Amino acid sequence: MEQKVLAFIKKHQLLKRDATVLVAVSGGPDSMALLHFLCGIKTEWNLKLIAVSVDHQLRGNESYEDLQYVKNICKEWGVRFAGASLDVPAYKEKHGIGTELAAREVRYSFFEEQMEKFDADFLALGHHGDDQVETMLMKLSRAASSSAFTGIPVYRKFSAGCIIRPFLCINKRELEAYCRTHQIAARVDPTNQDNDYTRNFFRNRIIPLIKEKNNNIHITVQHLSETLSEDESFLRNEAEKMVNEVVDFQAGNSMAAFETNLFKNRARALQRRAYHLILNYLYEVLPKDLSYAHEQQFFALLQREEGNTRIDFPSSLILENNYGKMIFISRIINLTFPITTR
């Protein structure tokens, strides 16, 4: 397993020598194995490791004991430790969001603080190949476009550094074998068996069925995720060029306009991404009720060549095709504002 992970790290350039690495450790087998693995290469790579751990206060004393367990292991392994008990239930109630989202926002806020405190280069997370399969299948069950069909990134920018996931090349079975080999004891979160959580449903019900046909599905899906990410990055860059060439933004980016013929001359894949880029410019925050149906309405409106037709989008945004000139405009803007197009 170790050689496979090292090859993956080198392929994606996930680490550099003399780096400061925060390791998110919950006490579970995935993160404990990650911390142990990084301790094993610490001397060779001259890494400065700091374990960061969060008690979300969702499981009473049990989750607090997880935090203390990680703290004690770090003392035993000679790893610096930074942990905190954070009131996720109060945060959830204050912001009116679900438990999983609240926990994630609180956790990552703490991680960001620690990245700044230690001037860290990387935050290492223990997501593995089976997590990637779960994520991609969850996206497949609800994504309406290829742009939304993305997996867990191998790395991404975070704070002043990057998040890295060195274990995406291995599966849960390999991680558990690693823990047995190195006699790593881990804490088990009982909520992982609660299939009311969407991810747990896929993990416990769907993935085992797929593995009956392809036990290396994590390798296939990781390759798919990487190639899709590369393709999407290229298409998004091309769409940005298209928007810069075709679309005029006015009134402090509260209005956008373009000639429909210029827009329709581009490849449909670029048109779709350009449409979403325009919305990202116009909306400060994308409305929750903005859906695939609105994209269909946009493309139907785009095809009209005569007359003046208008449709309403969420949050007071109006789309108008005025004899081949497409205009996006907020209701709060005076509709007589002069529009110019390329």
In short:
The protein has 342 residues and is of the alpha/beta class. It contains twelve helices and eleven strands. Strands 3-2-1-4-6-5 form a six-stranded mixed beta sheet, sandwiched between helices. It has a five-stranded antiparallel beta sheet with strand order 7-8-11-10-9.
What does this structure look like?
The chain is built from 12 helices and 11 strands. The protein has 342 residues and is of the alpha/beta class. It has 2 domains: 2-229, HUPs (Rossmann fold, 3-Layer(aba) Sandwich), CATH 3.40.50; 247-330, 2-Layer Sandwich (Uridine Diphospho-n-acetylenolpyruvylglucosamine Reductase, domain 3). The strands form 2 sheets. It has a 6-stranded mixed beta sheet with strand order 3-2-1-4-6-5, with helices on both faces. α3 (61-77) links the parallel β2 (48-55) and β3 (80-85). α6 crosses α8 (198-211). It starts with a helix and ends in a 12-residue tail after the last strand. Residues 334-342 have low confidence and may be disordered.
Q: Cα distance, first to last residue?
A: 57 Å
Level of helix content?
Answer: 40-55%
Using the CA coordinates, give the radius of gyration.
24 Å
Question: What is the element string, with H for helices and E for strands?
Answer: HEHEHEHHEHEEHHHEEHHHEEE
- Tally of individual domains: 2
Counted beta strands: 11
- Assembly context of the chains: single chain
- Here the CATH topology of the largest domain equals Rossmann fold
Low-pLDDT parts are 334-342
Question: In percent, how much strand structure appears in the residues?
Answer: 15-25%
How many helical stretches?
Answer: 12
Widest sheet: strand ordering? 3-2-1-4-6-5
